[in-house]
Amino acid sequence: MAIAFEGYPKITQSEINEALDFCNRQILHVLPEFTEEFQNAYSENGFYKPIPNRDWTCGFWTGEIWLAYEYSGDERLKKAAEIQIHSFLERIDKKIEVDHHDMGFLYSPSCVAGYKLTGSKEGREAAIKAADQLITRYHPVGEFIQAWGPMDAPENYRLIIDCLLNLPLLYWASQETGDSKYRDIAEKHIHTAVANVIREDYSTWHTFFFDMKTGAPDHGATCQGYRDGSAWARGQAWGVYGMALAYRYTGRKEYIDLFRHVTEYFLTHLPKDLVPYWDLEFTDGDDQPRDSSSASIAACGMLEMAKYLEPQEAEHYKTIAARIMKSVYDNYAVKDMNTSNGLVLHSTYSNHSPYNTCNHYGVDECNSWGDYFYMEALTRMSRDWEQYW
Ligand code: GLY
C-alpha cells in the first residue's frame, strides 16, 4: 500500500454533486439529438455527432442516460433510454454488427441497467440474446472468447484484456436464466485471460494469441498501445477494473493480489496530475496525448474492489480514486456546454505509433466510455450504487 499520493486533494461531496449536476444538465440538453440516434464513439473538436446503433460503444451513451436518470429522476431520460433499449433489441434480433465480443459493453449499461432500474422486459430479452451471441465466440480449444473477426482464422485467434468487462453480462444471464452455461464460459475465459495477459512486472498485454490447433498460449501483441512491450494505459485500466470484477464474480482470492499488483503498476506510471498519457510508456514532459478515460475506468475498478477489502485497505483505494477523480474533475471535465457536447475532454481512442497499426482517430477528444465511466465513478462516490456490470 505504498502509493497513496499523499497531499493530493480528494474530490469533495459538493464537487461530486456539482459534477453530476452538470452531467445531468448536459445530457438533458443534448437528448433530443441523441435519442433516436447515439453519440459517436468520440467527439470531433469537442462535439459528438449522431450515429445509428452500430458501433461497439453505443451502450455507454444509454448508460449515461440511466446514470443521469438515477441522479435526477427526470422522466425524459427514462423515456429516451427505453427508446434506445428497443433499438438494442432490434440490433440483436437482426444481428447488426454483433460479430465481436463487445456484447457486455453494449448491453450491460443499456439493457441490463434498464432491467435492473425499471424491470424493462425488452431490456432483459435483449441482454439475454446478447449473452447468447457472446458465447458463440467461445473457443473450447484455448478456452477463451475471441475478440474480433471471423472465428476460423489464425490471425483472429486471440483474446484482449478489454473483454473482462464483457463478462458480467454472462454472470447476469446465468443468474437470470438459471443456466450455468454463460457463467462457465466466463470463468474459463477469465482464467485464460488472467494467466496470459498479465506480465511478470504486472504490466499487461493488450491482446494475446493462442495456437489454433492446440490452444497453447502463443504470444502477446498490442493493438492500440504504443508498442508490443509497453502498457497501453486503457488496457491497464481495463485490467484494474477487470480484476475487481473477476474477484466479485469468482471469489478467487488470488485475484485480489493480482488486482493490487496491476493497480500498483498503473499508479506508479501516472504523471503528476494522476491522469495517464495514452500509453504508460509516456509521462510528464512527453509530447503525447492523455487518455483521461483510463483514469475514470481505473477509479471505478478501485471503488469496486474496495467493497471486498478490509476497511483500511478499502479506504486506501477509495482515497486514491477520490484523488484521481479530483484531477479529472478539475482539469479535464467539460464545464461549459458551448465548448463541448460531451462530459470529459482529453481522451484518446486510437493513436498511431511507429509500432502499431492503429489509425489516428479520437485523439485528445471526449469519448463515450470516458464520459460514461466518469459518471459511474462520481455515482459510486456519491452513494451505494447497484452496478450495471
Ligand atoms: N475496448 C476498446 C477500447 O478500449 O478502445
UniProtKB/TrEMBL annotation:
Residue sites binding substrate per the record: 102, 162, 220, 222, 234, 238, 350, 353
Active-site residues from the entry: 102, 162
Keyword Signal carried by entry: no
Entries under Pfam families matching the protein: Glyco_hydro_88 (PF07470)
InterPro entries: 6-hairpin_glycosidase_sf, 6hp_glycosidase-like_sf, Glyco_hydro_88, UG_Glycosaminoglycan_Hydrolase
Superkingdom classification of source: Bacteria
A GO molecular function held by the record: chondroitin hydrolase activity
Alphabetical UniProt keywords: Hydrolase
A GO biological-process term: polysaccharide catabolic process
PANTHER family: HYDROLASE, PUTATIVE (AFU_ORTHOLOGUE AFUA_7G05090)-RELATED
Family (UniProt): Belongs to the glycosyl hydrolase 88 family.
Protein name: Glycoside hydrolase family 88 protein
